[in-house]
Fold:
Amino acid sequence: MLIKKSLLYFIFSFLFFIIWNYIADGEIEWSYVIQISITISLIYLFYEWVKVPYQWKKDKDEEN
Structure:
């Protein structure tokens, strides 16, 4: 599920930046669009990964 959402963020940001580049400049800078889309996807993945609590921390607290 996490990968699917990240892929959706990539696709939507990719399309958004393609349209934005085309409207603003009249041409598409592919390297910029791909880099920013990948960055947005990785930030989302990192954010979702950080939200998940550590299982070892829970186990450690239960032992004490």
In short: The radius of gyration is 18 Å. The chain has a mean pLDDT of 86. Residues 2-25 form the longest helix (24 residues). The CA atoms of residues 9 and 41 lie 6 Å apart.
